[in-house]
Specification:
Layout: H1 11-21, E1 28-31, H2 33-46, E2 50-55, H3 62-70, E3 74-77, H4 80-88, E4 96-98, H5 105-113, E5 118-121, H6 124-133, E6 138-142, E7 151-153, H7 163-175, E8 179-184, E9 189-191, H8 195-215, E10 221-223, H9 239-254, E11 260-263, H10 267-270, E12 274-284, E13 293-297, E14 317-318, E15 325-331, E16 340-350, E17 358-362, E18 383-386
Parallel strand pairs: 1-18, 2-3, 2-11, 3-4, 5-6, 6-8, 8-10, 10-11, 13-15
Antiparallel strand pairs: 1-12, 7-9, 12-13, 12-17, 14-17, 15-16
Helix pairs in contact: 2-3, 5-6, 7-8, 8-9
The chain binds pyridoxal-5'-phosphate (PLP).
């Protein structure tokens, strides 16, 4: 398939990014901050009643964090290291949620000492740790969700607990002197089925009602996680459609008097803003009669393209070379045979593509720099420029 640049970037934006790209040797990421700003505004317009907690892991660059802080965002933080980073930029503890359900007791204490009072959990042991290390704090319990087959990068199984356990944990939270604040879920990243939110919200409603009736606990908050889409090869609905549909699901279950709603977008805010510029290192065939070319680029699984694992995320790849397309296997530059990005899914690249030509990996602003390894085979971490 041919990737049309115009489907992903307007020319003015691309030219601005290209101007930066021309001055550097590949590989590197260029991120257009205006695109992030637009995505943020669009999300807030779609969900005017929600509080946005940016999932820092998607792209922890200071330029991104500073921009989102200035726009009034809050932050979903997963470690003391991310905590240090956002607080160094002047983010207040009231703007922070410790969203990782897997955490050391002494790290919970660090968050507490810095003033953070909002914690996610999904297990009794973690809840007891929170009660000891962060007494009196607000907790929300993460529930398991379905939808792993329609999310391109599922976040299920490892996180969340069954509804019954979630209710028991919220009751226990009260006994332990914590504030049972709400329920969270994540329907899976790059979730293409909007119905996944419908099912999750219905589960949350049951928890809200049962806790109120049976235990006199009034929950106040629903954290709907991330999962909103970026533009990759596989088409999705627009953000506006997501917002309209999800708002309708909320109103069907909770009426007009909605609880506090939290969103934790990562990918949908950042991915579309990035272009990973790379260069073809080698083009070869494995036999004299092989129909397939192997195209090796100077980026790979270990320099930012981790989400090509199982060919989960299909990044649009653009080249200014024109001509007849031929199927290729795309692989990275390291001495590891896992470093193959696409083999089953057939990317077509021009037959005249040659060593030294540049390839642009579009929609790569999120989950690339933060996933890049430090020095596998001596290759440095993925560099990035924010424009
Ligand atoms: C990764 C993560 C997110 C961000 O998800 P996206 O699909 O990138 O928007 C949000 N919340 C939690 C708890 C996460 O782990």
């Amino acid at each position: 398939m041919t990737v049309k640049l115009d489907d992903y970037f307007d020319r003015e934006t691309f030219n601005r990014m290209q101007a930066v790209a021309e001055q550097h040797e590949t590989p590197f990421l260029v991120v257009d901050l205006k695109t992030i700003e637009r995505a943020y505004d669009e999300l807030v317009e779609g969900f005017p009643f929600a509080r946005v907690y940016y999932a820092v892991k998607a792209n922890p660059a200071n330029e991104v964090l500073g921009l989102l802080k200035d726009k009034g965002a809050n932050f979903d933080i997963a470690s003391i290291y991310e905590l240090e980073k956002v607080m160094a930029l002047g983010v207040k503890p009231e703007q922070i949620s410790f969203g990782n359900t897997i955490k050391k007791s002494r790290h919970i204490r660090t968050f507490y000492e810095k003033g953070v009072r909002l914690y996610a959990t999904d297990s009794e042991a973690d809840l007891r740790n929170i009660a000891k290390a962060a007494p009196g704090s607000k907790v929300y319990v993460r529930i398991l969700t379905e939808g792993s087959t329609t999310a391109d990068w599922p976040l299920s199984r490892k996180f969340g607990c069954q509804t019954d356990m979630a209710m028991d944990l919220l009751v226990l939270a009260r006994e332990l002197g914590l504030e049972p604040h709400g329920v969270s879920f994540h329907v899976g990243s790059q979730q293409r089925d909007i119905g996944a939110w419908d099912a999750a919200i219905a589960k949350v409603k049951v928890i809200f009602e049962r806790l109120k009736e049976e235990d006199g606990i009034s929950l106040k908050m629903i954290n709907m996680g991330g999962g909103f889409p970026a533009n990759y090869l596989t088409k999705t609905n627009t953000m506006q459609t997501y917002a309209e549909e999800i708002t309708r699901f909320l109103q069907e279950d909770f009426g007009d008097d909605l609880p506090e709603i939290i969103l934790e977008p990562g990918r949908s805010l950042i991915a579309n803003a990035g272009i990973l510029f790379s260069e073809v290192v080698l083009v070869s065939r494995k036999s004299h009669t092989a129909l397939e070319r192997w195209v090796f680029t100077d980026v790979g699984k270990f320099s930012g393209l981790v989400e090509t694992m199982d060919e989960s995320i299909k990044f649009p790849i653009w080249t200014d070379k024109k001509g007849e397309l031929e199927e290729v296997v795309l692989a990275g530059p390291t001495c590891d045979s896992a470093d193959i990005m696409y083999e089953s899914y057939k990317y077509g690249l021009p037959l005249n593509l040659a060593i030294g030509d540049r390839l642009c990996w579009l929609s790569t602003g999120a989950y690339t720099t933060s996933y890049s390894s430090i020095e596998f085979n001596g290759f440095p971490p993925l560099e990035a420029f924010y424009v």
